[in-house]
Design a protein that fits this description.
Oligomer: single chain
Structural class: alpha/beta
Helix content: 10-25%
Order of helices and strands: HEEEEEEE
Shape: globular
Number of helices: 1
Distance between the termini: 43 Å
Largest sheet: 3 strands, parallel
Number of strands: 7
């Protein structure tokens, strides 16, 4: 292997390794009290997730976890609610 092809091989390896750590397909946000325990891709879209229990609509539990929203929008308010009236927690992270 020449000195020229070695960086190319290493670059391809570096790109392919992180991909194996992701879930097979993107997940839609399912609703209040969703728990994420590993690397997750979220399906793009607009999600309205009110937090009924005031304990976090989404809980991310663990260490070294990446959640990629891929441009998804997370909205925890009621339709038409003013931002200065928002209460509760949107995302709880423990690790």
């Amino acid at each position: 292997m020449s000195w020229f092809t070695m960086p190319l091989v290493l670059a391809v390896f570096a790109i392919s390794v992180p991909a194996s750590a992701w879930a097979a397909e993107a997940r839609a946000l399912s609703g209040d009290d969703m728990e994420i325990r590993d690397n997750t891709l979220i399906k793009p879209g607009h999600y309205r997730l009110p937090d009924a229990g005031d304990d976090g609509a989404i809980r991310i539990t663990g260490n070294d976890i990446t959640v990629d929203f891929q441009g998804a929008e997370l909205d925890g308010s009621s339709e038409g609610q003013q931002p200065d009236a928002f209460t509760g927690r949107g995302i709880v992270i423990r690790g």
